[in-house]
Fold each of these.
Amino acid sequence: MPFDASRFRTRTGVLLITGLLFLLLLPPVSSVMNESYLVSFFSRILIYALAAVSLDLIIGYGGMVSLGHAAFFGIGAYGVGFLTFHFQESTLFIFGFEGTDNALISWPFAIVFSAALAAIIGALSLRTSGIYFIMITLAFSQMFYYLFVSLEAYGGDDGLSLWSRNRLGPLDISNDTVFYYVCLVSLLVFLFISWRLVHSRFGRVVRGTRENELRMQTLGYATYRYKLVCFTIAGAGAGLAGALLANQNEFVSPGLMHWTHSGEILVMVLLGGMGTLFGPVLGAMAFLLMEEVLAAWTEHWMVFLGPFLIIVVLFAKKGLYGLLTGERHE
Amino acid sequence: MNDYVLQVSQLQKSFGAVKATNNLSLEIERGQVHALIGPNGAGKTTLIKQLCGELIPDSGTILFNNKNITAFPMPKRALLGMGRSFQVTSVFQQLTVKENIALAVQAHHGHSFHFWKPASKEETLEQATMQAMQRCGLLARADTIASSLSHGEMRQLDVGMALAGKPELLLLDEPMAGMGSGGSLKMTELIQELKGNTSVLLIEHDMQAVFSLADRITVLVYGEAIATGTAEEIQNNPQVQRAYLGDEQDNA
């Protein structure tokens, strides 16, 4: 089949620009329509999109199918949760540090916390591959789930309520519209970083490793290191998503780390299209919209999600993104 | 004194009761093409796997440029100058020809923890990649996805990737397998050009190619080297005729 590069660029460009305009204009339009609820709903979509894009880095580009990604999401949320909790109680966090409600401290803390944990879990899990890797990442995330369930000081099973959202410089993120744009900028920045990443030398190595790890090693690449760095970067992205979600909900709970939550993020990536970066944004949108619309109608809404997912995966190789852009290759 | 690029001594490797490599010793002189022949199941590919580090031998030593690399992991051997092509074509199917070659080139241009700059904008990599594609005759196919190449072109790409790292020793596992006569001829020319600069360990069933290319030949039977010598010596060796060439005539 001849490869028509110009058509492929135009369709992709139109999709991306339309998507961006839609997201930029959503708050003013929804306020005109008197549907302000949409703004906070779409903040949630943006946050999940961020988590799904980070998972796409390891699944779609790195070929590492992880069922434990929600652990880093949850850890990021708790990173913010811990600091805010100690700020509210005016007590000390570990090592004599005080809590804070300053996002410029607590969000980077959440990102580093998640990345560090991803580095440790990755270092152990990446010694395996295939089905063993899936199982071991799942096991780790369950371990963290039960650890946080047992942390009575931080609410255990019931989770932690935050009194308010963090302070972010001059921005008042307790305002839903401001918070929405903060989420949008976070997603766009992470997408841009990921875009540069997958097209860099590093990204090329990661994609090569997904295709054929043995060949990569005979070419001279110590593939383990590259996979580990990729896994850690993805963990950092999920950590940022977690920090945002903690602010969105003003609540964190161990349920965020449950393996079914990892499964939901994985479904978003599959729906949107693995290895496409922008696809998972579509996937998150489709998943949460279906949940929102169908769950109002029946609690068994997954009965509809299941067949839909199967149809998309069977008939659209690159998911919804592939359907809309007509792209077949990266 | 001879200048050896590779010295293998008393290599042993067993899988259960099967001795895949049995007390095998072998030397390859710098710049020569050394062919490894033997019936199917003689342990030729098993030997290559041990040389490049995919398998670790039970005992014995492997010296590469007089350095003991017996316990080195694969990537380290590759960076020391050992290139390998695969018996069953092993390329990056979903990447373009250019990206395949670029990955091979990039491995030898420092570490790849460069996260920001687009790889396609790195001039030194680009130039080396172009040269390597030219060398294996795939320049015109640069933007083709590897999975849509013909079988012969894939073999060329496989060998091209091994060559792109400018190895001192090239391990070629049946590079002409499944190629038409035109392809075989091209591959023979390519290997001929390497002579003098790059040492080659060549596994090949195409005897015409082996006899025309090889400076020395080692015959492997049941993991054991039963003879080593020039093409003429091997052809006239009664033990070899019985074990290997004789068999083939019987079958024909």
Amino acid sequence: MKHLNEEELVELYYESRDAQADEQGSNLHMNHVLAEKHMQQCEACATAYDGLARVLASAEGEPVPERGAEYGAQVWQAIRSSLPVYEPKRRHIWAMWPRWAYAMAGILLLAGTFYAGKIWERTHTTTVAQNARQGRERVVLFVLDGHLDRSERLLVQLSHAADDPGAKSETVSLPLQSEARQLLADNRLYRQSVAQAKDPLLAGALDHLERVLVEVANSPDDLSTADVEQMEKELNTDGLLFEIRVLRARVADQAKERSGAIDRGRTTL
Amino acid sequence: MRNMGNADQELIRRVLAGEKDAYGLLVSAHSEAVFRVAYRITENEADADEVVQETFLRGYRALDRFDSRANFKTWIYRIGVNCALDARKARQKAGAVAIAEEFEEEQVAVQLADREAGPERILLDREIEGRRRKAMERMTESERTAFVLRHMEGSSMEEIAAVLGVEPNTAKQAVFRAVQKLRRSLAPLWVKA
């Protein structure tokens, strides 16, 4: 049988006192019930408990002097004059706002943030789309400029062949035929694209170029300088050369413009 | 208890709103309990009265820092205990602690029957009171406070822990140590019949 130690006896003593004060004894712990049961069977623990209870019962000390019913009022009167009055804390203007106002402000803030995000997203998307379109146009202009450059060189060579004073009656070799054939295929594509872009100047020039390229590509191998000169006059290649140079200058300006627009778009992102 | 707590909270709110006299109601409700604890600690009636006034003065000045979730009774008890301990220390410093007599631990146990009346009983009571006071002197502040609240005021361990600002188990240990000191001092007076 395990005996109760001193700490358990002290606890038992005060719990018994609490239980006496509380008539229903509802505060009794299960350990307390078990300890009491143990003491009924264990003489040693019962003797130890009695000794402790006797010592503690004698240690109540002198009774506390009674204080009358007016004691509280007397204490209050004694200290009242030395107490300052608390000043009611001023409530800040925002503290006086009802809670729903805060909730409404929160909702408005949330909605504002949402719409700002939408606008930003739309602007961002538009800029990207614009940049993509401008990028594509820039590539087209770059390729077109290459095509016009090659065409210009072909026309210059054709012009030189016709202008050779020592070869008026002689047969001229035209190595430009194969070049003309390649240019012809490209030119057809550009002409069809430009027709949709509603650019009459470029469309007219490419149409004119195509007729020249057809003639050059299909010209016989033993073409004389006179024949070349005749072809130049009929097809007005000098005029075409001028048109191409004008177009090339314009295309270069447009390409530069598109490039600047893309850079500005990137800066705004 | 809950209604009492709510009533205290309402009075505190009124005081902080500028109604000074509402504090008078709090003083009336708790001054006697504070006096009892103060008297048990100081063991001097005049000191205990002063402690009560000092306690409610300090309480008023600190009222705007009172946590509204706390129990006012426990809070004012805590201030009261601190004031009482200060008063006791001040009296000890002044060398004016009223101890009935000096007692030697090694003194041979006075073997007296505990239920006998007359001069012997009076002598025994004086002996007991002197030894009890001596034992209280040897207790630490927390032991003395815990013992006074548990043994003399019947406070629960939770209340004592709140007043001391410790865990209930620590408060329980403080009570146990106090009882041990008391028992060592008083046990020699009792003999088996």
